[in-house]
Amino acid sequence: MVLVHRQASYFVYEMNVPPTTLADINEELGRDVDVIRRKIFKKNKNNEVEECTLHEEMQPVPYRKNVQELLEKSKKLHKPKFQYGNGLDYYPFQK
Question: Which of 48, 68, 64 lies closest to 56 in space, CA to CA?
Answer without folding.
Answer: 64
